[in-house]
Write a structure and sequence with these properties.
Elements lengths: L2 H12 L8 E7 L14 H18 L11 H6 L7 E4 L12 E5 L6 E3 L23 E2 L13 E2 L2 E8 L2 E16 L5 E16 L13 E6 L7 H4 L1 H4 L2 E5 L12 E5 L10 E6 L5 E2 L1 E6 L2 E2 L18 E3 L6 E4 H19 L13 E2 L12 E5 L8 E5 L1 H4 E4 L4 E4 L1 E4 L5 E3 L1 H4 L2 E6 L4 E6 L6
Parallel strand pairs: 3-10, 4-9, 17-25, 18-24
Antiparallel strand pairs: 1-2, 1-8, 1-12, 2-3, 4-10, 5-8, 6-7, 7-8, 8-9, 11-12, 11-26, 13-14, 13-27, 14-17, 15-16, 15-20, 19-23, 20-21, 22-23, 26-27
Organism: Saponaria officinalis
Keywords: Aspartyl protease, Glycoprotein, Hydrolase, Protease, Signal
Protein name: Peptidase A1 domain-containing protein
């Protein structure tokens, strides 16, 4: 028996259909050394600039008002990239063996797509594009399918999908195939048939960050936002519109800074849990009512946090696809001033020279008896009085440099009016639960490292 056939039969033995709701998805940061996606020889400045670029691009990806948007040469260059901080490995299709590519995890999109055979133009990809014609369970989506949206638009005789993005886009046809996900209770791999996703045929200016050329291992995007073709909605019986995750600090030694997204019944949270309101149509918007530094309210125009549903140029969104939190300049500057005032009033420290991509840095580090300020986000639970506080401590707000001889505030400024993003750096060591169908968001501090 050939090695390929043996692998196939082993996979079939694992891919068992299950009636349980214990669905999970492993996610790994793109800069994990175990993935070899981001080059290991990057300098400190290059690595953190790349991570900052992800946040900047994520912010622009929210906007619906690209016409008339004035970009610097630097900004126009980063728009050639597709950005996201976490990747996962999907497994789908049937035939000689399932297709198992790495894809970006995107909580800001409801679309899942991969590059398929027959693409022109294509982005370079190590390994193969998805050979949909070899999958026995694959079917192109008809124009009459309820997920053919916008309706009656066709590409090569099937339902068309198109994702434009300033200077890049992917266009192709929609189809359905069997997907396989790990059952977090049994450890088995369960099969979910007839999942809709896109085949990228015309892929214009698609570049996945450090994955240039034939070494690129990222084949597409897995969308986890709410929308008609959302994975969460397609598997609503299993997900119940709920998912949870807990992002760890950076890994050390042989550990991988991976995390697991749990869906449905396994999306649980416990302890001193706090609950706030969330708007979950397309993106995950939280209702932020203010920011404090060391207990002092920062003077911020709160209109920057109000949801602009049509243009999405304002609002406050939780987005693990952004590494550092991104704030518009008119919000960032008062926060920066409040943090600088804390260090000057308490220790007489003045900011040192900036270290790109950070512009609030110090040449000394708190020692015995000294501390970082706590930055508090004041959220709202609609229909209830008062505020619900999330405390961001030193590990959430500051990046140490040179073995703790220097540090910088790890927040990135963007253009006014926004949007504002709560990025993965600020989310680490919190457990979050998204209850999209009920418009609720839960959080609790928790140590998140997985073995």
């Amino acid at each position: 028996m050939t090695k390929t056939l043996l692998t196939y039969f082993l996979l079939i033995a694992l891919f068992l259909i299950s009636n349980t709701n214990e669905l999970s998805l492993k996610i790994i940061p793109i800069d994990s050394p175990h993935l070899n996606i981001v080059p290991r020889n990057l300098t400190f400045k290059e690595r953190h600039q790349l991570l900052a670029n992800i946040s900047i691009l994520r912010g622009y990806s929210y906007r619906n008002d690209f016409e008339g948007l004035h970009l610097s040469l630097y900004e126009s260059q980063i728009f050639k990239f597709k950005a996201g901080y976490y990747v996962t490995k999907l497994v789908f299709g049937s035939g000689q063996q399932p297709y198992a590519p790495y894809v970006l995890v995107d909580t800001g999109s409801d679309e899942t797509w991969v590059q398929c055979e027959g693409c022109n133009p294509c982005f370079e990809l190590r390994g193969n594009n998805f050979a949909y014609h070899l999958s026995r369970s694959y079917r192109r989506m008809s124009l009459d399918d309820n997920l053919c949206l916008p309706p009656r638009q066709q590409f090569e005789g099937a339902c068309r999908f198109h994702i434009p993005y300033i200077s890049s886009s992917t266009t192709g046809f929609l189809g359905r195939d069997s997907f396989f996900y790990k059952n977090s209770l049994t450890g088995n791999i369960d099969m979910y048939p007839n999942i809709a996703f896109g085949c990228g045929i015309e892929n214009v200016n698609i570049v996945f960050w450090g994955n240039r050329g034939p070494q690129n291992v990222i084949a597409g995007v897995h969308g986890l936002a709410m929308g008609p073709r959302s994975f969460i909605n397609q598997l609503s019986a299993q997900t119940q519109g709920r998912f949870s995750y807990c992002l760890p600090s950076a890994a050390g030694g042989n550990r991988v800074a991976q995390s697991t997204i749990y869906f449905g019944d396994e999306a649980q949270i416990s302890g001193d849990v706090k609950m706030i309101s969330m708007y979950a149509m397309g993106r995950y918007h939280l209702y932020l009512g203010g920011i404090s530094v060391d207990g002092e309210r920062v003077d911020i125009d709160l209109s920057f946090f109000m949801l602009d549903e049509r243009r999405r140029t304002r609002g406050f969104f939780v987005d693990s696809g952004a590494h550092y939190s991104l704030l518009p300049r008119s919000v960032y500057d008062p926060l920066k001033m409040a943090v600088a005032t804390y260090f000057f009033n308490n220790y007489g420290w003045r900011p040192g020279s900036s270290v790109n991509p950070f512009d609030l840095c110090y040449a000394e580090y708190p020692s015995d008896g000294q501390s970082f300020p706590i930055v508090t986000l004041h959220f709202l639970l609609l229909g209830h009085s008062g505020e619900v506080d999330m405390d961001l401590r030193s590990e959430h707000m500051f990046q140490s440099l040179n073995n703790r001889r220097r540090f910088c505030m790890a927040v990135i400024s963007g253009n006014d009016p926004g949007p504002s993003l709560l990025g993965a750096f600020q989310q680490k060591n919190f457990k979050f639960l998204f209850d999209a169908y009920n418009g609720l968001f839960y959080f609790v501090p928790q140590f998140c490292q997985e073995n």
